[in-house]
Amino acid sequence: MKTVQRTDSKAETLWVLVKFVYYFLALPCLVFFAAMSLIIYSSNEPGGHDPAMSAFFVLVWLAVLVPLGARRYFKMSRRSKLLKMVSMLSRPDRFSPQKQHQVLDAGRGKYLGIDTKNGTILYIHMVKKGLIDVIGLDMQSWTNRELEGSALRLYTKMPDVPVLSVYAHPIVAKRLFDTLGAMDQNSYGNPFTDSWPVYVAQQSRFVEYEHGVVVPQAV
Length: 219
Prior knowledge:
Ethanolamine utilization protein EutG, 4 helices, single chain, 4-stranded antiparallel β-sheet, alpha+beta, transmembrane helix, 20% strand, plasmid, transmembrane, membrane, 3-stranded antiparallel β-sheet
């Protein structure tokens, strides 16, 4: 596995702090002022057409709509990239999970799919810009599973990525937890010369090329 820097740089840490301040401190105030602008202009309050006030409210609305619009755009972009990567790695005879056995969390840049027929699992995590984990697991590749509310964790035998986690609706997370438990009691054969984890690691080179990123697991 390639050696990569998984922790955030100073710039990335600063960006996380900026987003925290915006969403939890600035945005509630901006939404309040935006609501006030609707009340003022809909009721034709005196001074409601004051140029300075109008300019202020325009800035308020821009400060609300532009970041939220950008967030929506990037979320949809991550979703599209995740689906493309899943499509690149899927094969009817190796990995073709049913809809109810998949979780796609575009907000966190994560995907987990479980193929109950072939006993294979695919996990993708867009860790940060330029770095994506693409991990294939078979029934021998993980050691334990854990469910905590909406969080499903899968413990692996990989020292660099010992725990894989996804968040879903509690009902969905519970279903996947139970599915993994049932699969653990079954025996799955492998008619191929390479295992599913090896196949995913090899195919991940195409993910690196297609998306211009580093996939530590690629070989």
